[in-house]
Amino acid sequence: MEVLTNDNWILTVGTFLPLVGVLVMLFIPAVEETLHKQIAIVTSGATLAVGIWTLVLFDYDQSEKLQFWVDEEWISVIRSGYTIGLDGISLPLYILSMAVTFLVAIYTWDNMPDAGNPKSFLMLMMVLQVGMAGSFIAQDLILFFVFFEVVLLPMYFMIGVWGGEQRQYASLKFFLYTMFGSALMLVAFLALFFQTDAVSFGFAHLMDAGALIDRDTQIWIFAGMFVGFAVKVPMFPFHTWLPDAHTQAPTQGSVILAAILLKLGTYGFVRIAIPMLPQGAEAWAPVIGVLAVIGIIYGALGCLAQTDMKRLIAFSSVAHMGFVMLGISTLTSLGINAALFGMVAHGLITGMLFFVAGSIKHRYHTLEIKRLSGLLIQMPKMGWILGFAAMASLGLPGLAGFWGEFPAILAAWNPHPALNQDLFRTLTVIAALGTVLAAGYLLWLYQRTAFGTPSDEFSGHDSGHGGHAAHSLSAAANHDHDDHESDIHDVNTIEWIAWTPFLIAILVLGVYPQLMFEVMDPAVTQLVERVGAGIP
Amino acid sequence: MIASLIAQASEWQAPELDWHALAPELVLVVGINIVLLVDLWIDQSKKWLMASLAGFVMLGAFIPIVTLAVIGDETRSMFGGRYVIDEYALILKALFLLVGYVIVLLSQTELEEGGYYQGEYYVLLLVSVLGMVMMASSRDLVSVFVALELLSIPAYMLAAWRKRDTKSNEAGVKYYLLGVFASGVLLYGMSYLYGTTGSTKLSDIGDALTDDLLPMQVIAVAFVIVGFGFKVSAVPFHTWAPDTYEGAPTPVTAFLSVASKAAGFVGLVTMLFVAMHPADGVYEPFLWILAALTMTVGNVLALRQTNIVRLLAYSSVSQGGFILMPLAVMASGDAAESALKSVVIYLLIYAFSNLGAFAVIIAVSRKTRSGEITSFGGLMSYAPGLGLLMTIFLASLTGIPPLGIWIAKLQAFKTVLDAGDGAAYALAIIAAVNTVISAAYYMKVLREMWMKPVPDGDTTPISAPQPVWVALGICAAGTIVLGLVPGLVLRFADLQDLTSAFGR
Q: What is the structure's pLDDT at B9?
């Protein structure tokens, strides 16, 4: 495999830079809350700057090759190395993780969850970022596994300490589900290692040698990886941790969970399971396809039944990840391109929706859809942002969500020749129906919350008065939380700073999707060819 | 009779002694006597010196180990291959001395404040460590047994150290009765091994055993495993462990659950690899069942515990299952070397994490005076340093990378899959499920620390004494560094051609 080794310091620096912030924060007392927030913003900002420099240095003409390649000795006894690299598949997700963490750190400036203690909260967030970025650059199974697991504890604490009422139950469920998945995944990784002559854990070797394993063994090993990644995605029927985790997590946790963590699962399928075990993938693809479509329909129906806005968004994640998995299960270049696009789009859109939900909760102290109405009257800008994100989420052409869903459905019509065409065409039809349901639940949500007049309990003030809208930042932060009406104000500066990049990205990727497809396509095509060659 | 003995004696020649190789043991022996004598003459008000003295003895014995390791890879063998100093022995001796040192650090304040018999305590501790250090080198039935008794008998007394506390007495008596019973079983098995092979030298026994085992040899192998099974608290021979761990003074519990257990494993490993390796038809299925039972039963019982020490006791039972796991497949395929490496690594890293967890318990219980898990409520809010350390230790015990034990667990899984047959895969799946179960109870403690309120709102800070902080530092550094750069210890256990290193 050809690799480019120029500027190969940049991935290591970009990945581990947040740890510098963690170390600094470790030695500063917890009472210096503002200082901790500043350090977190500076650190994640610096990380993002390294990320942007990576974008500049990346050679887009050779995006199918792994760039900034490092292959150093790490645990030589078990033949695992510190092997990292970045290609067109991982680049968007790598940058996304940096951007999201930076923006979430900014959002935390005056939206610290009630439990307080920004020191621990932000330290965990920085560690989380290391795990996420690391997973996308790892080119060695053991290294990938380590990074994949690093995210586990920080997220557990984020949900469990700073979450909602049911936080302890939700966090434990999240932890045990993921742990179970990764335990089986590890067994599968090791089985793969031994079936390929126990030479190396490097991706390059495993992709070459994995395809030569006999079919039955491939199917078994794929099963182990399937459970591990499917829990993370999450796919039906392993999704039950997600609504709880999302609903209970603090806004920051929900955003990171939706935007990046779920992608670790789908990325694992694309990067590891499918290219290394082509025949296993071919055998499992119908199962993945069917479960994906069940997820689409089930998630949509689940959304229709929710009374809590955040829980509704969580269920919509199940449906959206269904589209991503459907794209992957076709094993075609179009399908996998769509899936990768869908990952980024879903990260931006659902992340945005969780931001809005968090801010609504902050102002109204409830997310019960019944009690919310007339957002457009009370907070017109917030209402419009919610509308924008909801439209993007339902897959309106011109916004990013469309380019994840539509090509995935299209790809399912013509799956890889080795797959059962009739089955996939049936799936196409059902998935298309799912988009209608998606429009249904999102528009219904929007109609119930944004339209109408504000309910009596929140409309003590006439929101038309200018003075109210210009609530100062500090006043909002220190406000007595029992006083509903005076909390209600439109989008503030910090929120604008944190959200604008999301909104712009959703729009730009929607209007000019080529921006990402161009980067991903050569790598995806190469990957699909490799898979095709492995299927007899 | 006597005449024949005299005739033999006349042919006797003094064995060659390698003083350098024996130096760690000799330093300990001299040190034990010094501690004993100093304790006799020292004024009561200066008894605190005993801890420092015992610590220095441990560190003093550490020096020859370092020099031996630096000098090279040549295996030093004495008494006709019955006492061997190789890399395997050295790394384990280093482990035992380091654990001993940490235990001294942990015991210091507890003993001073409790007014216990400090001199005697450290003498017994040193004797027990001496037994362990010998165990690492023993390659003969007699020396294995002597080492085992040397390390066990002081431990029985240490467990009952708080002599006016009925629980501590219970701990000592239970440990003593079951330990002696286990020694009896072990000795019985060893006698059959000697009887059927005609030698006490382990490598001779290994040569004499064939695939065609005599019924007596089958019994012998089974009894030896049962005997060590008690020592390493493998289910169903674990029943003493929770009561003993709960009743004994906490530093002693830490010592038992780490060093004593490790010594049991070292004995078992030596016996398996050098003497009993041809009997794989007997020990493989036996160890398979023991490993599966140990990790599962230990875990399930740990789930129900409300006392932190009992929880760690059961968790250490379950961790023992993970250490046994690779031994259950050691004769299949080419897993032997990998299995040995896996056990050694696991013992090393487990020592750091488990000792660390006990050190935090010792520090916290100085304030709370309670062993309940609920007493850890809100620890993060008023003692974030201790909370963070406990999080690191428990996460390591769970097996979350990049903290210590993940690499040990990985190596254990890797060994089992290396064997590659159906039984091995089944064991790997059982272990994977058990990893998740264990996460549930480790998380229970973490949840208490991070997410629950402080009991009674009592947020007075914890005053952990200096030595405990040193111990915590050593354990945390070990847990983190070995997790990130496991090559440091994996290299030591990389015994190319173990069989020759064992003098087989």
A: 67
Q: Is the pLDDT of residue A464 over 50?
A: no
Examine residue B12 and state whether it is found in any structural domain, yes or no.
no
What does the alpha-carbon distance between residue B321 and residue A315 come to, in Å, rounded to a whole number? 40
From the list B407, B450, B487, the residue facing A160 with the nearest CB is B450
Classify residue B259 by its DSSP letter: I
- Single out the residue of B177, B131, B126, B169 nearest to residue B150, CA to CA: B131
Chain B positions in Cβ-Cβ contact with residue A172 (cut-off 8 Å): 440, 443, 447
CB contact under 8 A, B407 and A77: no
Q: pLDDT of A398-430, one tens digit each?
A: 899 899 889 999 999 999 988 888 999 999 999
Say if B422 falls within a structural domain: yes
* pLDDT above 90 (res B33): yes
Element (H, E) at A532: helix A514-534
Nearest neighbour of B450 by CB, restricted to A73, A161, A175:
A161
Q: What is the DSSP string of A444-488?
A: HHHHHHHSS---GGG-SS-TT-HHHHT--HHHHHT--TT-HHHH-
Higher-confidence residue of A105 and B336: namely: A105
Average pLDDT over residues A453-476: 53
The two tokens of residue B89 are: 């022995």
Residue A357, pLDDT above cutoff 60? yes
Integer Cα distance of B223 and B268 in angstroms: 11
Provide the 8-state DSSP code for A110: T
Yes or no, beta carbons of B413 and A190 under 8 Å apart:
yes
How much is the average pLDDT of A176-192?
A: 88
Q: Is the pLDDT of residue B280 over 70?
A: yes
Long-range Cβ contacts of A58-61 (<8 Å, 24+ apart):
A58/A86, A58/A91, A59/A4, A60/A518, A60/A519
What does the alpha-carbon distance between residue B486 and residue B342 come to, in Å, rounded to a whole number?
12
B76 pLDDT higher than 90? no
Contact at 8 Å (CB) between A452 and A373?
Answer: yes
CB contact under 8 A, A149 and B406: yes
At A155 the three-state DSSP class reads: helix
- A187 in B contact zone (CB under 8 Å): yes
Which range of residues forms the domain containing residue B162?
19-501
